[in-house]
Amino acid sequence: MNPFFANPTTDPSELYRLRDGIFAVDLLTTAIVEFDVITKLAAAPGDLAAVCAMLGTARRPTDVMLTLLAANDLITKAGEKFYVSERGREHLMTGSQWCVRDYFASLQDRPVARDMARVLRTGKPANWSSADDLDNWHDAMEDENFAREFTAAMDCRGLVLAQSLAAAVAGDLSSSSRMLDIGGGSGVYACGLVHACPGLTASVLEKPPIDAIAREAIAGRGFADRVEVQVGDMLSDPLPAGFDVHLFSNVLHDWDIPEVEVLLAQSSRALPSGGTLLVHEAFLNESKTGPLPVAEYSAILMHSTQGRCYGQGEIRSFLDAADFDTVRYQDTTADRGVFIARKR
Ligand SMILES: C[S@@+](CC[C@H](N)C(=O)[O-])C[C@H]1O[C@@H](n2cnc3c(N)ncnc32)[C@H](O)[C@@H]1O
Predict the structure, then answer these.
(1) Is any ligand 1 atom within 6 A of the Cβ of residue 197?
(2) Is the pTM value of this prediction over 0.90?
(3) Strand 75-78 to 245-249 pairing
(4) Which pLDDT tens digit goes with each residue over 223-262?
(5) Distance CA 242, CA 187 (A)
(6) Ligand 1 contact, 210 CB (< 6 A)
(7) Domains of the chain from N-terminus onward
(8) 155 lines ligand 1 (CB under 6 A)
């Protein structure tokens, strides 16, 4: 038993939720105050494209905003169309006697709320809040200090999540032998999976300087004989051959739909027929109206990355388009889950 992969006795999910939901109130404030979305939507219900046109906002962040409003029961969704709910109408529509829009207005100049307005208008991510002097999260990851701090954050989170992922998929990997952990960070998920699957070895694909950080972390946990690290760019280099399992853990949600399609096409080209693809992160429900913790998490991804949380239906259709059959979806822990898919 490797001491790093022992389960805690208490559940950390609420702690994860506090951290992951930190930007949600800023997004709600901006939506309600600056864009007055509830008043406008009450007058003109519409689908995502119509809301973007009405507000002058970009599709990706508007999608995240509408999901967050729906998850808070401020709007409802029927088919593809959004309507203001009774709760939204009473408490956030200008003119209602119980309207608390001005209560939120007292928060509208918080720096992240200002960022949210810019992200909504431009579609481009804002700076990572602890790296204001660095252009954006992906560029910031080329800075050694930022990369270490960020990779450490992903790594400690992964100690619990990796075990839950491994428990969910170990049965599916019983005859698999080599896994490529694409954008694998510190390698904590690769280590957790090989720990749970005795027949499996893994390779973590990362960009510099994270590759060196991963090598240290993997050796420090005693997995250097079963988990290697290779340098590559998952978007522009062909993925290496010779693997029968691919893992994208918390990777797709960093990217907008065109890059997600590129990543899945890359995986599809490199995996043999019958190969297994695992997509692990936090997913929205089919209608993208919740669950609330994932809708809140999507706000930080929208703000700081080029991505957002995807709905389960969206992932199924991306997988299908990339020549994968979805075998199943399974919840893991702390609002995360995994899609298990097979290359056709
Ligand atoms: C949010 S982190 C997820 C890390 C890890 N898989 C996890 O679940 O914690 C995304 C990772 O993707 C990596 N990444 C981003 N762009 C990449 C690229 N073009 N090629 C390879 N890795 C990349 C980053 O370095 C980062 O470690």
Answers:
(1) no
(2) yes
(3) unpaired
(4) 999 999 999 999 999 999 999 999 999 999 999 999 999 9
(5) 19
(6) yes
(7) 13-124 (1.10.10.10), 144-343 (3.40.50.150)
(8) no
